[in-house]
Amino acid sequence: MHDEVYTDGVEEITVGGSIVRVDLITLSLTERDANNLPKRVFRQRLIFSVEAFANSVDVMQNALQGLVDAGIVRRNQPRPSADPVNIGSSAERGPTAPNSPRSPNVSTNFR
Question: Phi/psi of residue 50, each to 5°?
Answer without folding.
Answer: -60, -40
